[in-house]
Amino acid sequence: MNQIGFKNFRKFHELPPLDLSPVTIFVGENNAGKSTVVKALLATLDFIKSRVSSVENDAWMNLNFYFNKSYYTHLGTFERARYNKAAENEPITFIISTGDRRYEINVEKSDSDADVFGRVSKINITLLPFNIELCFSLRSDRKIHIVFHSHPFSGYNLDEIPAGYPQKFPGELKKYFNEMSKDIEMDMTLVEGVYFSSEYIADALLQSFQIRLSATIENLNSKSSTQNDLGVFGLTDEIKDFLRKKKTIFSKKYFRQIKQSDINVEYIYAHAVTQTILFSAKDTNDYHVKTVHEYANLQVGEGSPSHDFILKWMQAFNIGKDYKITSVGGEAHLVKIQNSDGEWVNLADKGMGSIQLMILLFRVATKMAEAGIGYGTKGVDTLLIIEEPEQNLHPMLQSKLADLFYELNHEYGFRFIIETHSEYLIRKSQVIVANKHFASEEELQKNSPFRVVYFPGDGKLPYDMHYRVDGKFSNEFGTGFFDEASNLIFDIL
User: Where are the domains of the chain?
Assistant: First the structure.
């Protein structure tokens, strides 16, 4: 996940896309908008990963954006979700960038009395490596407006080889842009009568585009290359010549590689910690139980990367030196922790902070095992959104959370969005950045593992605190955060 932004959503008229780093930390006043950004991201991903299968009367195109489906992002109705000062006809717009794509989704008020969903009127998908903009109109005209830009996307490195692309991809991409003299625009219609077998919405739209584009290129020199036969409007000689020249790259697998929506997101919300001895598999709504049950069912063996990861960090957090999970009649699990003196005790008998940390470690270890870490896979493609991980933790342990998140990104590829009020977590992130000894601000901005975004409240937009090479911030926090402890000290002098 690279960016998140929106218009006319909740308390914001417009939130320009926020850049996200490997570990992005949201901090600020209560009700300042941190959760709003998270809800926008989760709701957008929920829509993008919705599946379509029906083709009867183009029913798959009647796309609804639901505001009451997800437990974590339950917003009730369209009107509750829309910015309260927006005009009656203004849509809600969601913008995210992930992997090789940028999405912009327009959601209008539906005709439904229930108002629990909005009608998706337009989806813009930008294929970032190629800087191709696809504007899908989901109204009655079924129109696709396409812009092949003659310059690379500003945030994309032409020398990078994204996962899954062949070695010669960067060279082909540079050649692609070097041969383009100017932006090329054309219009198509969506393909009718194609069966999309339970595909993600975005992938179905891209498939429609690719089918139409392939048909256009294949028939350029035939008599059937009319606008009516191809569903193409304004097929000028210039566009024909352009498509002929780009036929190779459009047909190769690195162009088709874009047709993927593998976005793996885990939301770890702020949940109450309970001192449960037996984790019953029947308590499916209990986050602790669910986490223990899923990890235990993977039967992670001793010496595996997931197992060793838990041992390392439960020792770092002073929880114990070993753990074991035993099944109780196949209906529940019992978690035991070995203390430094060798004694085995129930996890429930440890402190609230230790319980919370073990649940976090089990959840991360589950993702590692599912991704096959240590068995031919070097990293995971998972975004973890964690709400207030510092709950019940001593300040020293709060600071160690920064070490944990850094290692999980650096060693395994996890990405994070952290909602926090912990000064200690942020201070430790500054130390980590300073100890990287970046040679310049430019190098830091490109390679820093952390980004802190401050939400000032009062309707003001959040802003990047911007680390300096010495670990300090270029910008200032609002009152009541870093300065609060100092102010209280002055009060007693």
Answer: 50-256, 272-380
